[in-house]
Predict the structure.
Amino acid sequence: MTGIWGFHLRPAPRGGTRLVVRTRGRGRPRWLTRPFGVLLGEPAHAVMQIRQFHNLRGRVGGEARPESPDADG
């Protein structure tokens, strides 16, 4: 399997910073790796990423703020 996990900091409204995360992965043989990724890999990755964001928010001292309606999605 190969993959990339990118973290990008973008300017946000009112002088804040927005963290944008992108992931992409590929495995061979596809018929074997795709079901594994959907059933186990993606849920496990989501749990780890949510926990990582929670810890990061605590370290930078920021509170979750609602996004403005014109923010990128």
About this structure: Helices lie at 30-60. The longest strand covers residues 2-11. The CA atoms of residues 50 and 67 lie 18 Å apart.
